[in-house]
Amino acid sequence: MRTLQSVTIALTLALSGPCFPAMAQVPVVPAYVDETSASGITTSYDGDWLFIVGGGVAAFDCNDDGYPDVVLPGGESKAQLYVNTSKRGGSLSFEPQPSGVELDSVSGAYPADIDSDGITDLVVLRVGENVVMRGLGACRFERANEAWGFDGGDAWSTSLALTFEKGASWPTVAIGNYVDRHEDLSPWGSCTNNWLHRPGDAGRFAAPMPLKPSFCALSMLFTDWDRSGTPSLRVSNDREYYEGGQEQMWRVLPGQPPALLTPADGWKALRIWGMGIASYDLDGDGYPEYFLTSMADNKLQTLAAPGPKADFKDVAYARGVTAHRPYVGDDLRPSTAWHPEFEDVNNDGLVDLFVTKGNVDQMPDFAMRDPDNLLLQGADGKFVETGDQAGIANNGNSRGAALADFNMDGLLDLMVVNRRSGAQVWRNTAAGDAHWISLELRQPAPNEDAIGAWVEVRRGDAVMRRELTVGGGHAGGQLGWLHFGLGDQASASVAVTWPDGSRSEWTDLPADGFYVLERDRPAAPFTPRG
Fold first, then answer.
1. Which of 15, 42, 105, 189 has a Cα-to-Cα distance from 319 of 20 to 30 A?
2. pLDDT at 24
3. Is residue 434 helix, strand or coil?
4. Residue-wise burial string across 217-243, b where 16 or more C-beta atoms lie within 10 A, e elsewhere
5. CA-CA distance, 278 to 343, in Å (whole number)?
6. How far does Cα 439 stand from its chain's mean position?
7. How far, in Å, CA of 293 to CA of 276, rounded?
8. pLDDT single digits (tens) 141-158
């Protein structure tokens, strides 16, 4: 079936020919090839009621070869780590490896170097006890709950965010929990308290602090929304409207209890079926915008006016990212959106938006065939749907995902977790001469990965900015290379505002390369294996 979007693009191209005045340039659509069957990825996210949510992807380099490896949850089945065996520029391939993360009842995982030893660790979210896994190197992990004083509880955990508070040598971890599975549903069940795990004695967590009220958090993000230098905790919530549930922002200041922002702080009540959060500075004003997924009501929030007030307004319709119904097929019921991610998939220097879709289970008021979105940003700042043309308009019951350069060729590939069926893998095969640059940050311990830093890349007169975070998305996160498209620019200038507020000078770097930015040292080129 030919979509309205494809007709619009064809008409735009026709009218921009020699007989008509030029119209806004249509973004170049990347070509994705489904390589699932040959990739080696076989994990399925299985289970019924307790696994209607969750199913995220953890993507990170666990063997120091530069290539992103992945941990996929299995739900009722075992979680599995896959080592990336792809060759540079070649087909995507992964091998399952025994790693210690083969746990059951896993809903998702997030990578972070918790003990700042230079080896990435994992926080594994479960229906039951959450587990922190200490990285041992070579993609091996061991349970560290007891050694690190981490109380994993016994909840239905579905989201996470991590930060290093100022002056702390140990991270602060927020855990979002869903419905209390030990109570009868009446009518929707009761949401379990979310938890804040702050540093305790040296090398350990303190007892978890409940974050009240809690409204079934499905996504969390520590983010410096006002560029104050201290991230706040943004929480996107599902359900519980009849008990006052709404989106939340918590001020988390060192040595103080967390404080919930209120209308007096500029915070406006927003009630959605919150599933995921993605952030990026889309308008170049130095402050992040936030895309919030929901059921038929996705939001794109921007600050009404920079300043101390958390006064956000919705610009989703104006920017073309409502994505509230399927864009192919004849199912016109509302969509259900889960994992959002901002990345530049065609390297034109304008960040794009990917969103997974899938019915919660068999909800009759919502679309059953609900393809994932690939919304490309144009030069006018508006987004256009291209998922069907790009080849990723799957109709699986999608949950979590990761956009990452799995074969290290400068093009962002895609992995999607589907409920009750196997995960899918697409290789980005876009042709063209658009340039790019990928960056990885390093600083002395603690917080060696520089969580909370802001990276700026200048291409010509435009400056792209993104915040290095662990959290957001849906039930999974990434750690490693930060990718920037450069369009026709053969070089870029790069600057970093580090987590303590200090700033590096602009550094000029050639395009089409990987660079490790170690604090107070020259940028170091990295050459992936062939």
1. 15
2. 46
3. coil
4. bbbbbbbbbbeeebbbbbbbbbbbeee
5. 10
6. 17
7. 5
8. 999 999 999 999 999 999
Cα distances from 101 to residues 56, 70, 105, 139, in angstroms, run 14, 11, 11, 10
In this predicted structure, the answer to whether residue 315 has a pLDDT above a threshold of 50 is yes
Residue 67 pLDDT grade (very low, low, confident, very high; cuts 50, 70, 90): very high
Spell out a b/e string for 117-126, using b for 16 or more CB atoms within 10 Å of the CB, else e: eebbbbbbbb
DSSP secondary structure, 184-209, as one string: --SSS--BPPEEEE-B-STTSBPPPE
Q: SS3 of 10, please? A: helix
Could you tell me the two tokens for 175? 């855990």
Among residues of the chain, what percentage have pLDDT more than 70?
A: 94
Pick from 31, 36, 138: nearest CA to 94 = 36
Is residue 341 helix, strand or coil?
strand
Between the alpha carbon of residue 319 and those of residues 66, 298, 383, 433, 501, the distances in Å are 35, 12, 6, 27, 31
Q: Whole-prediction pTM value? A: 0.94
Alpha-carbon distance of 71 to 476, in angstroms, equals: 9
Q: Is the peptide bond before 213 cis (omega within 30 degrees of 0)?
A: yes
What sign does the dihedral 40-41-47-48 (CA atoms) show? negative
Contact by Cβ (8 Å): 260, 248: yes
Q: Which residues contact 264 (CB under 8 A, 6 or more apart)?
A: none
Question: Which has more pLDDT, 287 or 2?
Answer: 287
Beta strands in 138-276 (DSSP E): 140-143, 155-163, 172-177, 194-197, 209-211, 217-223, 232-237, 248-251, 259-260
The tokens for 163 are 């930060």
Please tell me the predicted confidence (pLDDT) of residue 25: 66
| Residues in contact with 369: Cβ distance below 8 Å, sequence separation at least 6, in sequence order | 326, 329, 331, 395
